[in-house]
């Protein structure tokens, strides 16, 4: 069908979804869909077409409640965003990861040493050795949170 000089097909009414699906399966290069309503099945089909290296364009206003696994929306697999990495932020994040790793090793060593000393001395004063362990543990948690929240991508 030609509409305003454009080569396109318009599907309306009963059986429109079946006709649309047949034409989509016969597509060789690209699929472009403009629809206010989409079914979860159609989204999964579009994902399969995307995996077959067909160009998929979708315009919709529908809130698609199609979840997979741990509440990951299937439609997010169709969205491609151009993102760039902030090299300075990525380097800082890697330094924090290395610091967390080093502090974890130090903390493990302190716990092992304190356990051995507490076993041999059997004195309550050894419990004061827990103070630096707790402080290092809190520092580790602080840096883990910073690593998790550090934005290295910008769109």
Provide structural commentary.
There is one protein chain. The protein has four helices and eight strands. The chain has 155 residues and is an alpha+beta fold. It folds into two domains: 16-77, no CATH class; 84-154. The strands form four sheets. Strands 1-2 form a two-stranded antiparallel sheet. Helix 2 (40-51) links the parallel strand 3 (30-34) and strand 4 (55-59). The relative contact order is 0.10.
Q: What descriptive keywords fit this protein?
A:
transmembrane helix, alpha+beta, two-stranded antiparallel sheet, 8 strands, membrane
* Global shape: elongated
User: What is the topology, as strand order, of the major beta sheet?
Assistant: 1-2
Please state the CA-atom Rg, rounded to the nearest Å.
28 Å
Largest sheet, in brief, is:
2 strands, antiparallel
Unreliable residue runs? none
Total helical segments: 4
Helix and strand sequence: EEHEHEEEEHHE
From the helix content, strand content and strand pairing, which structural class follows? alpha+beta
Determine the N-to-C terminus distance: 38 Å
Task: Tell me the total number of β-strands.
Answer: 8
Number of domains: 2
Please state roughly what percent of the residues sit in beta strands, choosing from under 5%, 5-15%, 15-25%, 25-35%, 35-45% or over 45%. 5-15%
Percent helix range = 40-55%
Mean pLDDT: 82
Transmembrane segments: 102-120, 126-143
Keywords: Membrane, Transmembrane, Transmembrane helix
SSE layout and pairing:
Layout: E1 2-3, E2 6-7, H1 16-25, E3 30-34, H2 40-51, E4 55-59, E5 67-68, E6 72-73, E7 84-85, H3 87-121, H4 130-149, E8 153-154
Parallel strand pairs: 3-4
Antiparallel strand pairs: 1-2, 5-6, 7-8
Helix pairs in contact: 3-4
């Amino acid at each position: 069908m030609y509409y305003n000089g454009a080569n396109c097909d318009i599907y309306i009414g009963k059986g429109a979804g079946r006709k649309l699906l047949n034409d989509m399966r016969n597509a060789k290069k690209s699929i472009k869909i403009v629809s206010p309503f989409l079914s979860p099945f159609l989204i999964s089909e579009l994902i399969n077409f995307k995996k077959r290296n067909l160009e998929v364009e979708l315009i919709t206003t529908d809130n698609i409640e199609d979840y997979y696994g741990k509440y990951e929306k299937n439609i997010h697999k169709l969205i491609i965003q151009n993102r760039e990495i902030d090299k300075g932020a990525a380097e800082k994040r890697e330094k924090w990861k290395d610091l967390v790793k080093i502090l974890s090793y130090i903390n493990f060593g302190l716990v092992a040493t304190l356990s051995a000393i507490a076993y041999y001395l059997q004195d309550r004063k050894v419990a004061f050795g827990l103070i630096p362990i707790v402080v290092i543990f809190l520092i580790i948690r602080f840096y883990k949170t910073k690593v998790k929240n550090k934005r290295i991508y910008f769109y």
